[in-house]
């Protein structure tokens, strides 16, 4: 019990650190991109961030809904992405935590900040200040639109995640497999067999 608690605390701390670092990086990048761009480009950037949040939210839910059985036949035939799919499903809680809590929440926070910058860009272009009535109206409308698309997109993503979890996870796993092969890195752990064998020896 203590070991599980220690692992949980260790994972929570590591996730918090990763979130802090990624949030800082994405916040700096989005702010730099939005500072000197035309407002239409800024709007595209905002909705791109929203789209990323929706996609990762869908991936996290798909991981918890997927069954690893269909991937075993693929792994036996050495299909690219099959092993990664099994690992994702076996570690669904951690994968979902990263996708939903880390990337998803970061995307939500940054899209809110980016929306404010876009509204400021629009109102300044129209010669208005951030204390004007026009700024208030544009801010409310744009923020509400972003929120509506985020919630609606996640609701639609949940539907696909539950009903097409196998296809979604396999697609994500194939992308991970491609990156691993091209960059020669390990993105997902595949030491399950080694762990099992080591336990047997003990």
Structure characterization notes:
This protein has 202 residues and is an all-alpha fold. It has one domain. The protein has helices at 2-35, 39-65, 69-76, 82-90, 92-125, 133-163, 165-183, 192-201. Residues 192-202 have low confidence and may be disordered.
Question: What is the β-strand count?
Answer: 0
Computed over alpha carbons, the radius of gyration is: 21 Å
Question: Can you summarize the main beta sheet?
Answer: none
Q: How many helices does DSSP assign?
A: 8
The helicity comes to: over 70%
Q: Low-confidence parts, pLDDT < 50 over ≥5 residues?
A: 192-202
Which strand-content bin applies to the residues?
under 5%
Overall geometry comes to elongated
Mean pLDDT: 85
Q: Roughly how many Å apart are the termini?
A: 20 Å
Q: Supply the helix-strand structural class.
A: mainly alpha
- How many domains, in number, for the residues? 1
């Amino acid at each position: 019990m203590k070991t599980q608690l220690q692992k949980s605390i260790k994972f929570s701390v590591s996730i918090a650190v990763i979130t802090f670092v990624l949030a800082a990086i994405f916040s700096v990048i989005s702010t730099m991109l939005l500072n000197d761009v035309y407002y239409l480009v800024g709007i595209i950037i905002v909705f791109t961030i929203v789209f990323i949040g929706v996609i990762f939210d869908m991936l996290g839910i798909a991981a918890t809904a997927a069954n690893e059985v269909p991937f075993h036949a693929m792994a036996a035939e050495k299909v690219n992405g099959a092993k990664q799919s099994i690992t994702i499903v076996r570690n669904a809680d951690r994968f979902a935590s990263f996708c939903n809590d880390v990337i998803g929440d970061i995307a939500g926070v940054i899209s809110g900040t980016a929306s404010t910058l876009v509204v400021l860009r629009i109102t300044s272009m129209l010669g208005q200040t951030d204390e004007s009535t026009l700024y208030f109206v544009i801010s409310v409308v744009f923020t509400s639109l972003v929120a509506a698309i985020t919630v609606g997109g996640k609701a639609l993503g949940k539907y696909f995640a539950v009903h097409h979890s196998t296809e979604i996870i396999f697609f994500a796993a194939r992308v991970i497999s491609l990156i691993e092969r091209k960059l020669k890195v390990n993105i997902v752990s595949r030491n399950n067999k080694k762990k099992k064998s080591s336990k047997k020896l003990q």
